[in-house]
Amino acid sequence: MSKQPVAVVGVGQTKHVAARQDVSIAGLVREAAVRALADAALDWADIDAVVIGKAPDFFEGVMMPELYLAEALGAVGKPMLRVHTAGSVGGSTALVAANLVAARVHGTVLTVAFEKQSESNAMWGLSLPIPFQQPLTAGAGGFFAPHVRAYMRRTGAPDTVGSLVAFKDRRNALKNPYAHLHEHDLTLERVQSSPMLWDPIRYSETCPSSDGACALVLTGERGAARAPRPPAWVHGGAMRSEPTIFAGKDYVSPQAGRDCAADVYRQAGVTDPRRQLDAVEMYVPFSWYEPMWLENLGFADQGEGWKLVEAGVTEMDGDLPVNPSGGVLSSNPIGASGMIRFAEAALQVRGLAGEHQIDGARRALGHAYGGGAQFFSMWLVGSDRPDR
Amino acid sequence: MSSPAPSAPRTGGRDVAVVAFAQSNHTRHTDQLSEVELVMPVLHDVLKQTGLTANRIGFTCSGSSDYLAGRAFSFTMALDGVGAWPPISESHVEMDGAWALYEAWVKLRTGEADTALVYSYGKSSPGSVRDVLTRQLDPYTLAPLWPDSIALAALQARALIDAGLTDERRLARTAVRSRRAATANPHAQLRGSADVEDLLRRPYEVEPLRRHDCPPISDGAAAVVLAAGDAARALHANPAWIRGVDHRIEAHQPGVRDLTDSPSTRLAATAAGAFDAPFDAAELHAPFTAQEVVLRRALDLDDRVRVNPSGGPLAANPVMAAGLIRLGEAAALIHRGEAGRVLAHATSGPCLQQNLVAVLENTGGGTR
What we know:
The structure holds two protein chains of two kinds.
Chain A: E1 7-13, H1 25-40, E2 49-53, H2 66-69, E3 80-83, H3 89-102, E4 108-116, H4 122-125, H5 139-155, H6 161-173, H7 188-193, E5 196-198, E6 201-202, E7 211-219, H8 221-226, E8 232-241, H9 255-268, H10 273-276, E9 279-281, H11 289-296, H12 305-310, H13 334-350, E10 363-370, E11 375-382
Parallel strand pairs in A: 2-3, 2-4, 9-10
Antiparallel strand pairs in A: 1-7, 1-8, 4-7, 5-6, 8-11, 10-11
Helix pairs in contact in A: 3-13
Chain B: E1 16-23, H1 35-50, E2 59-63, H2 66-69, H3 74-82, E3 90-93, H4 97-110, E4 115-123, H5 129-132, H6 149-162, H7 168-181, H8 196-200, E5 204-206, E6 209-210, E7 219-228, H9 229-235, E8 240-249, H10 263-271, E9 281-283, H11 289-299, E10 306-307, H12 322-335, E11 341-348, E12 354-361
Parallel strand pairs in B: 2-3, 2-4, 9-10, 9-11
Antiparallel strand pairs in B: 1-7, 1-8, 4-7, 5-6, 8-12, 11-12
Helix pairs in contact in B: 1-3, 4-12, 6-11
């Protein structure tokens, strides 16, 4: 029996902010779920299963919080799965949910991802002393900065490229009502003169810490036919993983990322991603990762990614808009960030992205990564039902 | 057996089987081993049984908990034990490995992979697992009270005794039966037991539970290989076919549940086709003696069914792996030709909040 095509018929997000002190964790995830159900014009009773994802439990200080969230997500009496694949988890969670529909195990699935960073301290959560291992107390930026430096050295990219990405994404975020950072007064000069955090990564080139949740309603052909608004169809989806550290690992352009993208393009019948995709929502927590991923995902030749950035190709009005939503640089509820990329890609091909809609977008990529640039999850969505 | 059938069992889809199972020798302490070192021998064992290597596996999925490991992203290091190079198609659930198996089963049903490696591990010894598990309770209303896992299980046992469904003597018999069965299981941690009279003279841990009613604290790991259709037939002479698998969750607050019942287990069992035919054996993930009473009632298991011939979680309870071990032990009964139809169950959360039921059979091929 063949796979069933999967459609995204509901998308919901919270307004991402530094601290949602007005809601509990349950209130936060339910808010996103209710919005996704409303978008799909469905009720809790229409949902067959719930798949939830988030980054490490230490970020809120709750072990396996899905147990306590069963009621808030209407999961009582239903199957509930909890995915955790580091920073890529939001994407992985959506893919696990999509497989439940594709395999015809369930008809309609609600998938939710969240992080409520204000409940705890991510830096602490990442810095617990571990037997057998060197402590990493510099946070994610400290881990990734040397890889950015390696990219600059390898490609000869000028120092300013990161600031161009940061300025673009923060300006895009002004068109996205759900984005955390709305910096109306930001200028390119201010980005370039912001404090250096982890050389070469500056403060304004770094993602914020956010509270937020994202939810999707996924269904099959019958569900899509009943949906009141246009669905986004999943044309391809994949996950790839490689070890954190090993001799010969390419941190600048990890093989797992290349393989994952190649698998997704193959499934979707995409041979020239630069020309065939209309929008990309990629996981860029530090601005330099945009040119790095442009190469890793096959949008630019090796060493050429930064030139696309400089030429404005990835601007909202460029021919390959990247992160029209403002991206991770403008909102980072960690566990949800991957799903937000997937959701924003779906909104683009549904024509429902509002002010940050790319006109006529018919195919878009959602991308997430995590761990030591080692876990990748991606999906490619389109306005048309896949014909294979 | 009779039971309501609210939804018809699933039909169609690819047949998926367990073709290999391996586990560690579970122990109270593994001070000299990291999680990777705990997992690696088990992975080598399970792959060796099939002749496969990591790069020939279609999909890999694991289950573990950062809170047991005491660090964020603990599973990333365990991945080193797999040898994920060249890169592999891989996922992880922050759940017992039984749910990792479920995710892998779904993946094989999509047709995107023909084989899957599933593993999980739990190293409880570095902390106090009894206290650690309080952190999985509602953080606003329940966790601040620190009701530990034994106290919550004692509430459940008390509810069962008050309802006349069991008594302390019968609970002790379950402990004796389980740990004596484990004498035949070289992987078990507690093998053998004093007799019932002796046990009942011992003090309460948390009344009405005595120490024998509680699981041991274990470090351990487990792994299975799943395969679909012809791949399964090629990898094992007696594949343990997964005829159905389903899982359900209940409300979290113990106060809103009837702790003597497990409607989620019954729902999952119905959806998995568990009531279609009798079982030769059942592997139940009941860490506390009283929980076996709840599960037997929910699953309509009478005394003719062999329950936990491996000794069950009362004989070894590596948290996050104990559920996957039930599936593995159930499959192993079929692999060895000792049973034709076996039920496997896994649980998660306080007082059996979330439950998974799988039906394994020795006959494959045609779908129901």
